[in-house]
Amino acid sequence: MKLTGPFKQIVTLAHLPLRGKISDDQLEIVENGGIITDNGKIVDIGTFETLLSAIEKNATPCAIEFIEDEQICLPAFTDSHTHICFGGNRAKDFAMRNAGKTYLEIAESGGGIWSSVQHTRNASEDELLATLLERIQFLLNLGITTIEIKSGYGLDVENELKMLRAIKKAQTKTPATLVPTCLSAHLKPKDFYGTNREYLDFIVNEILPKVKEENLANRVDIFIEKSAFQPEESKEFLLKAKDLGFEITVHADQFTPGSSRIAVEVGAKSADHLEATIDEDIAFIAHSDTVATALPGASLGLGEKFTPARKILDAGGILAIASDWNPGSAPMGNLITQCAVLATYQKLSTAEVLAGITFRAAFALGLEDRGKLEKGMKADFVTFATDDFQNILYHQGSLKASHTFINGQKI
Ligand code: NIG
Ligand code: FE
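YS: structure for the whole thing
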């Protein structure tokens, strides 16, 4: 057992609702707080003095980790949507986009998703692992301890499995929780000779059974969009993946509306992007258990509008916020900066943002054991050297996390 503290504030996020709007005055804040952990779980939270005197009075064997300087403490964050396993770089795409080139012109000059596929195919599993671990470290430094990571730049059996194996190997080398997702349905690769439907069947028949066999992922994603996969074929694919026992998540409504409906209809854990979602469909997803995930990093990377996060929350939806970190549309990776920007444009309370990168994001991944500092929850937390939690978003990512704790241990 260990008591960690004192913290100027502990923002527990305890008792907050899974869905809908939240105001900052609903936040439970323990002033001069301490956290008792044991076996990676939270045992108790209270004022440091009360916890300390209880330990002394009962002579409970307990280590004490004193926090010397002024720090505040929050649940560690979850990034529920990333593509951080990739080879190469797409800075040229970014510059071309800003010079006014179209999606097609960029693709024709060797850019786009296909360019990342070629670089990823050319990288060995160990090369992918090395850069993946660097990106995981970057996220850990932000206080993010649970990270979803997609395949989707291999797009054939060998290379999709290579990506997922690199992610599995990374899990043996990091204390973060990695959640792999099979996104072989990112795009029909140029070297697949057949229709979209035939490619989706190929995934169902050739890739997913191997993913299962090697226990590489239990989640399946698809990019439903005019330039990728069409609504009907996607729905059939998702139902087949579900039949095989996979959880579902969808890249939905990024440029054209309609696919978030499919996500809800197939019972997806989350529908992500939603920049183009129409009001009627906002109501539809908000009344479901499918998490609506905003990806402000993609809006910033592409110069597109933001996900209507305010409307989703007002309609009672479950809103998560994730980085979408990828080489093409979202190269930044700094989820805290992205959250701060989304909050200003969408008028989100700090409580709504924090919920979106903690227990609501974790819910999208089926991990209901984390994201709130409450008795029995996983003891992942992050500290900042400041006296007030409002400073985190206020500084828009410039205030760095001081320490990240996983299972009660400082990493
Ligand atoms: O989430 N929208 C589709 N997929 C990624 C972009 C991938 C890429 O451009 O490499 C996304 O934004
Ligand atoms: Fe994405």
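YS: worth flagging: The first strand starts at residue 2 and ends at 11.
IM: good catch. Also The two ends are 17 Å apart (CA to CA).
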